[in-house]
Amino acid sequence: MKAAYLDMIRMIERLHRQCLELVKAEIEREGIRDLNNVQALILFNIGEGEVTVGELTQRGYYLGSNVSYNVKKLVENGYLVQERSPHDRRSTHVRVSDKGLAIYKHMDRLFEHHAEAMSEAGLSEEDLNGASDILSRLLRYWSGPEHFSGRGYPGA
Questions:
Q1: Burial class of residue 35 in the structure, from the number of CB atoms within 10 Å of its CB (0-12 exposed, 13-18 middle, 19+ buried)
Q2: Would 153 be classed as within a structural domain?
């Protein structure tokens, strides 16, 4: 069981890195030089909505310090619009600008293309749903309180 568990952890890491590489290659193919792959995914995940910087971190997509840095760069480069919350002056809201919306739409088309090509690679929607279910259960397991209380393993 331990070997299978460790193989899965390695695969998750490799999949994440490969996804970032695909996004990076697409950005470079488009000749975009003021945006990196993580920033493109932030734009994609915000989409046409509006979120707080804290919500981006809470969603678990990005590490806290990276979120602040990347949001700052996205604002500086005109991809995001940042505004103070009228209700809580400590909180800032971000939304995608028109320039950022073009990236969001491009990423959406890229992922749509990938999704359509999955069947040619022998992956069905059922396969993806099954993998997603397993990863969701793993996330719930890793997020359980026993893993943060110091009782997650013998000898703790």
A1: buried
A2: no
Output the pTM of the full model. 0.85
Q: HEC string of 94-139?
A: EEECHHHHHHHHHHHHHHHHHHHHCHHHCCCHHHHHHHHHHHHHHH
pLDDT at 64 over 60: no
User: Would 12 be classed as within a structural domain?
Assistant: yes
Question: How many structural domains is the chain composed of?
Answer: 1
Tell me which H or E stretch contains 29: helix 2-29
The dihedral sign for the CA sequence 60, 108, 117, 28: negative
Domain assignment of residue 131, yes or no: yes
Place of tokens 């993580």: 38
CATH of the domain at 115: 1.10.10.10
